[in-house]
Structures are given as structure tokens and as C-alpha cells.
Write a structure and sequence with these properties.
Layout (H helix, E strand, L loop, with lengths): L1 E3 L1 E14 L6 E14 H10 L4 E6 L4 H13 L1 E6 L7 E7 L2 E8 L12 H9 L3 E4 L9 H11 L4 E4 L13 E2 L3 H7 L9 H16 L4 E4 L5 E4 L6 E3 L12 H14 L4 H17 L2 H4 L17 H13 L4 E6 L6 H11 L4 E7 L1 H8 L8 H9 L6 E5 L5 H7 L3 E5 L16 H4 L5 E5 L7 H8 L8
Parallel strand pairs: 1-4, 1-8, 2-6, 4-5, 8-9, 9-10, 14-15, 14-17, 15-16, 17-18
Antiparallel strand pairs: 2-3, 6-7, 11-12, 12-13
Helix pairs in contact: 1-7, 5-6, 7-8
Length: 470
């Protein structure tokens, strides 16, 4: 369930190439208009993106704006339980050019009618919800006495997340989590003069807010720096945000609140839910935020997309060649990542302008190493290798050799560690890809390898001594 103040958001987009003759202001040549749910309605639509059934309880009138919002909610898969209201549908109009907002125009409707008792369908829906997100946009919905009584009742049994607003009401007691941003926290608990340390100050004030509101936890969103969670006097949890390039952050708070609520609804512990929400908000902003979102669009991933998969590897290779660079590739199982792997990968990366790692899949590792391997599944191995600063992309293959992947990528240089030799002297294994790489003029090289480091030895060292304890 999502409860709160619904808005109709409209982007008026166009181009600007001159100033008005009668005033020093830009003249927008409008090329289109795009509508989307706003406020609590956007939070509800974003919760649907997380793969859950969502009902929105909000004041929505029967005028043209309300009708348009109903259409958008229906397209997004959100069920609406409309509360009676007076006045027109509130609208936020953003005037945009070249991807930047020039101005915002708010057309505010009259607040909802005071309700001593919540309508029976709305109360029943709230009581049956697995989790509730209260999306307060300061327009009076969260002040309704009947709504607050039911929310307090639900908070005693189910996760309730409260996304507050400076002009809104405090959460009802017992709420699982409130999600103010740093400015909203400052509005409720002003920073102290002479306080040292941003995180320490935020943690202290979040703890004070947690106790004042009589709720279980406060998660303060810190923009590009992630989020800080306080349970009161306990040490705070800090969840950093992954790096992303953002021009527009509109809707990031709604994405965060929707993601953390859906995670709690699925039984996640709070730290896990916050981590997922920070990653989801970062990916949402990186994808263009609310301006780029469309009803029914696939959700941004819970983690920012890593350079994993053939498409990502091909994009890295193409971009490298476009700027005249050298594409380097290497391969291996990378089961139980160790310093020998790191040495090989860093040496390989120095040979060119990008490094693509061809990773043996679980089936490929079993074929090469036996039924007890790999120790670490391929999805985790890929993420670990992709996270290294010397690696630009990872692609997984199922065969015993990566010939098909190499034929697609056609790297300029193919690299193996020094435990391999090109022609197999002294009984050491020959490198089977060497001749294959020559077909497109690629070169195969060997880089130094740290002897004595291997996954097999790590596994053996980890085995319990016979007769001893594990």
C-alpha cells in the first residue's frame, strides 16, 4: 500500500535558441509534453516496478487532471482507492530544454476533505497490506485523523515506512522507518552550532528524531553519499552509494522509499533493505531519474549495472577501438580470487587501454576441475572480478575454451599467466587459444605469475586436518 498526496507531473519540453525581445528570458520552442504520476502516485508506480501488487490511497478528484492521473496509474499497474477531495488535481509542470529544467510551475489544488473515519474500502486495504509506504507531500492527507488511527494500528503488525515532508505531519508512533533527506532532517532537528563531522552530526540528530517521533529507525538519505540509519542511541548504519553521473535527481527519494518498503515487505532485514534501496536510487538517477521514467517500463536494477555479459564486453571493445586504443583480454576460472589472479590482471591491463576477462562458467569449471568445483558460483565470481579497478568488463562462457567469445570480441592482445607457455615445453600446458587469436591478427602474450598461489592450494589449506576440528 502507498498512502499520501498524489500529484500529476507534466514535463513541457522544447528547445531554446534565443531570448525574448521584451525581457532577458529564454524563449522555449515547445516540442512536446510528457505526463507521469507525481508525489505518492510516482512512489506507487515505482513500487510496481519492484514486482509487487500496489494500491494507492490518495485524494484524486474527478476533473481532467484527476482523469489523466487515473489513466497513468492504470498504465503503471497501480490500483487506486481515491479519497474524496475538493478542488482541482494538483499539478507540477517542469519546463525543460536540453535535458535541463528551466522553471517549475505548481498548480495547487484544494486539500482533501477532513475525514473522521477512513472509508471502509481504504481501511480494509490498509489492514490487509504486507507493508505500507506513507508518501507525504505536505498537502494534508497524513493529517487525517481516521487515516492516522488505521496507520497506527497497522504499524503494530506490519512494516510501515514514512517518507516525510517539511510541511507534513510527524509519523504515527511505531513506524518501522522514516526516510527524510538531509534538508528535511535539518528542518525537524536543526544542526548544532560548532558541531564537527557531517556524519556524526547527522547520526546524532537522526537519533533525536527517532526518539521524538517514537519510531523504530530513521534513514537519512544523503544524495550521492548514500544513507545513514539511526536506531536512536545505537551506532548508526552507513550505506555508501555507488558512483554514478547524475544531472537530475527528481524522484530519487520516491525510488528509495519504494525500494526499501518492498524489500521489507519481502522479509528483508533493515540493513539489507537499505542497501537495496540505496543501489536502486543510484541506478534510477543514473538512468535519468523521473524525467526518463515511463509507466510500465522495466525497473532499474537493484545494483548499478556492472560491465558483465557479452553486450557489455562488446561495448567496451567497440569504445576502445573507436578512440584508437588496444583491447586486451584474458581468461580463467578465478575461483577463490587471490593475489596471483590480481597480479596477472593488473599486468594484463597495462598492455592496453581496456581489459576484458573471459570467465569460465560453473559448467565449464566442473568440466575442467571436477564435480567439487567451483567453490564460488559464476555470478559471484563475475561480480568480484568486475569490481577490480583493472578490469573493464567480464563475459562468461560455457565451453572449456573461450573461442566463441574471443571470435566475437577479437581482442588485440590475449594474455595468460606465466604458468602457461605458448608451445608447451617441459610438460607444461600449451595455450590452446594462441593459434585461434592469430586469425584476426591478434597477439598472445604471457605475463609473470606469482608462483605458489593457486585456488587448489587455498582449498587444500582450508581443509580440516584429519582427526582435528574443522
Amino acid at each position: 500500500m502507498v498512502v499520501g498526496d498524489a500529484l500529476l507531473d507534466r514535463d513541457l519540453v522544447g528547445t531554446v535558441d534565443r531570448l525574448a525581445p521584451d525581457a532577458p528570458v529564454p524563449v522555449l520552442a515547445a516540442t512536446g509534453s510528457h505526463d507521469r504520476p507525481g508525489g505518492a502516485a510516482l512512489a506507487a508506480a515505482l513500487a510496481v516496478d519492484r514486482g509487487v501488487d500496489v494500491t494507492l490511497i490518495a485524494p484524486v478528484p474527478d476533473d481532467a487532471g484527476g482523469t489523466r492521473l487515473r489513466e497513468l496509474l492504470d498504465q503503471a499497474g497501480v490500483a487506486l482507492c481515491a479519497l474524496p477531495t475538493e478542488g482541482p488535481m494538483p499539478e507540477k509542470i517542469r519546463i525543460r530544454a536540453g535535458g535541463h529544467m528551466l522553471m517549475r510551475v505548481d498548480q495547487s489544488g484544494v486539500g482533501s476533505v477532513a475525514l473522521d473515519r477512513l472509508p471502509r474500502p481504504a481501511a480494509a486495504a490498509l489492514r490487509s497490506a504486507n507493508a505500507v509506504l506513507v508518501s507525504d507531500y505536505g498537502r494534508g492527507t497524513t493529517a487525517l485523523a481516521g487515516l492516522r488511527r488505521v496507520l497506527a494500528e497497522v504499524a503494530a503488525r506490519r512494516p510501515v515506512v514514512w517518507d516525510p515532508h517539511p510541511r507534513g505531519c510527524p509519523p504515527v508512533p511505531g513506524v518501522r522507518l522514516a526516510t527524510p533527506n538531509e534538508a528535511e532532517l535539518a528542518h525537524r532537528v536543526p544542526p548544532e552550532d560548532g558541531a564537527t563531522g557531517r556524519l556524526a552530526g547527522v547520526a546524532r540528530r537522526a537519533g533525536q528524531l527517532c526518539e521524538a517521533w517514537q519510531i523504530q529507525a530513521v534513514a537519512v538519505t544523503l544524495g550521492a553519499d548514500g544513507a545513514l540509519v539511526s536506531h536512536g542511541s545505537a551506532p548508526p548504519l552507513v550505506v555508501p552509494a555507488p558512483p554514478c553521473v547524475a544531472q537530475d535527481t527528481c524522484g530519487a527519494g520516491d525510488r528509495f522509499a519504494a525500494a526499501v518498503t518492498t524489500a521489507l515487505a519481502r522479509g528483508a532485514v533493515l540493513s539489507e533493505a537499505i542497501t537495496q534501496a540505496v543501489a536502486a536510487a543510484s541506478a534510477f538517477v543514473a538512468a535519468g531519474a523521473a524525467a526518463a521514467w515511463q509507466p510500465g517500463a522495466a525497473a532499474a536494477p537493484l545494483e548499478p549495472p556492472a560491465a558483465i555479459g557479452l553486450a557489455a564486453a562488446q561495448a567496451v571493445a567497440d569504445a576502445t577501438r573507436l578512440r584508437g586504443g588496444t583491447v586486451v583480454a584474458t581468461g580463467g576460472c578465478f575461483d577463490l580470487l587471490h593475489v596471483g589472479h590480481l597480479s596477472t590482471l593488473r599486468a594484463a591491463r597495462k598492455l592496453g587501454d581496456s581489459l576484458i576477462v573471459c570467465l569460465n562458467s560453473d559448467a565449464s569449471v566442473r568440466a575442467l576441475k571436477g564435480p567439487t568445483r567451483p567453490v564460488v558460483p559464476q555470478s559471484e565470481r563475475a561480480r568480484l572480478v568486475a569490481a577490480l579497478d583493472c578490469v573493464d568488463a567480464v563475459v562468461t562462457f560455457d565451453e572449456t575454451t573461450p573461442d566463441q567469445v574471443l571470435d566475437q570480441l577479437r581482442p588485440d592482445i590475449w594474455v595468460k599467466g606465466g604458468d602457461y607457455f605458448l608451445d608447451g615445453p617441459d610438460g607444461r600446458p600449451a595455450l590452446p587459444e594462441a593459434e585461434f587469436v592469430k586469425r584476426w591478427g591478434g597477439q598472445t602474450v604471457v605475463v609473470p605469475y606469482l608462483s605458489g598461489r593457486s585456488t587448489t592450494k587455498l582449498i587444500a589449506a582450508a581443509q580440516p586436518i584429519e582427526g582435528g576440528s574443522s
